[in-house]
């Protein structure tokens, strides 16, 4: 059965234009989290990634358990609603001038319907990245076809991994994404091990040599940020830097100065990336 398309009346907007959707007993909202890049002596926001926030009777529910609880067809519809909301609410994110990252739905129909969803945003299509955020939800054999369809519409491609695991090298070689995401759970485990963390620069350099940028996500402590900087990643994301905020919420995401972040620590920050 083909998943439902997003009907024009599935989404409503409040008096200032912030959009929400209702699916059964749940209200679906957009939250955005900045993704940072290095600039001189600190980090500056470069992208805003959209995340689904389901609410039931005013109480938020984690998005992955919510999506996992839905039948396949309803989940595909919820994923389309989420992408539509993020693209529609992007203009209500407090930081302006950032590129946008949206999650790819796990059904093939998502890619086929992306043209209609792109009508909801004024951002040039080459500034939108479609990310495979949770590979465990996908049939790996279908991903190359989905990628070809998305690229045919001009979207950039980001490929993550399965939670707690390293990036899937074979799939990355096949897809050749524009952006490789290093899973936060796996990264944090590696970053806390001095021996294992020494392997990160080589991993990052390998992806960059193949033409991809590298995003390290899930950064929660200064030690983890230090490991990500030493690895020479291109982009950085995590609660240490900024938490996701609902669309329309004031966001405090000014430039992060290394001198303040590492104040009181004997930390030398490489000027041009990690150890080469």
UniProtKB/TrEMBL annotation:
SMART domains: EAL. InterPro entries: Cyclic-di-GMP_PDE-like, EAL_dom, EAL_sf. Residues 9-258 form the EAL domain. It comes from the Bacteria. Signal peptide: none annotated. Pfam families: EAL (PF00563). Gene3D superfamilies: EAL domain. Coiled coil: none annotated. This is EAL domain-containing protein. It comes from Neoaquamicrobium sediminum. The lineage of its organism: Bacteria, Pseudomonadati, Pseudomonadota, Alphaproteobacteria, Hyphomicrobiales.
